[in-house]
Amino acid sequence: xxxxxxxxxxxxxxxxxxxxxxxxxxxxxxxxxxxxxxxxxxxxxxxxxxxxxxxxxxxxxxxxxxxxxxxxxxxxxxxxxxxxxxxxxxxxxxxxxxxxxxxxxxxxxxxxxxxxxxxxxxxxxxxxxxxxxxxxxxxxxxxxxxxxxxxxxxxxxxxxxxxxxxxxxxxxxxxxxxxxxxxxxxxxxxxxxxxxxxxxxxxxxxxxxxxxxxxxxxxxxxxxxxxxxxxxxxxxxxxxxxxxxxxxxxxxxxxxxxxxxxxxxxxxxxxxxxxxxxxxxxxxxxxxxxxxxxxxxxxxxxxxxxxxxxxxxxxxxxxxxxxxxxxxxxxxxxxx
Length: 336
Fold this sequence. Notes:
There is one protein chain. By secondary structure, this protein is α+β, with helices and mostly antiparallel strands. The chain has helices at residues 9-13, 15-22, 40-43, 129-133, 143-227, 251-254, 325-329, and strands at residues 2-3, 47-51, 58-59, 68-78, 84-91, 100-105, 110-113, 121-126, 241-243, 258-260, 266-275, 282-289, 298-303, 307-312, 317-321. Among the domains are: 2-139, SH3 type barrels, CATH 2.30.30; 241-329, PRC-barrel domain (SH3 type barrels). A seven-stranded mixed sheet has the order 9-14-15-10-11-12-13.
């Protein structure tokens, strides 16, 4: 049975340093145990093996034949505190050509001694071939690389600042555009309200003017009614005709009906009917007097009490007024 040492090489390499520190001086007489001490000069160039099996306190003779020879140690990474952080293992390639470096953590490296000879040992890590092949390549940091990384960081910072500035400018432009749009909409709404107000004012003014005109016309017609002398309703008798009340006739039947004087002579025709404010009764009848073919006629407004309406059995309607055409033309004209 082979025996092996499970401690990490980092602990072995600093054992002497711990001894010197206990004596409080920078220089001390070192007493090294060859069974527990490894030399960095011996580690450089030493080969590292990998096995997927967990290494136990003992291993069967010949088990090392199943281990994978990964490569040799090319360098070591030592922190400022003197601790060995990792060894740099060169894997792959042939005679150093095509080789790449990977870092092996010191805590993962095991020293397996072969027999009693302290210089006869194996360096073993528990890993599969796939894990080794997928291990990231170790690149020794250089000032140029650090400068390049710093330039990359600065470039990324400048790009981020430029993007932030562009975003701020875009937001400011959008805000300004939105403000201009709101101002334009507000102005348009104000103009629309002003136009609607002006139109409403013009409409009210027109209605007021129309109402004033109607009032004036009504006043003039009322004054004309007061000036003119009311006529007496005629009492004409015609064979086959009978008196008819206004409510028994329609507006269509009366409008355009000829109007005759008491001597049975035509004096004009009914041009229109004037209704009361509630639209239920007829207040006056407008007779178009004189003219020719509707040209030059004079509208005269009379009351129903001044007219006699007759209708025959076959529906013929005749309207009479106790006046002549010449007398009606002397009446005040109706201002409708």
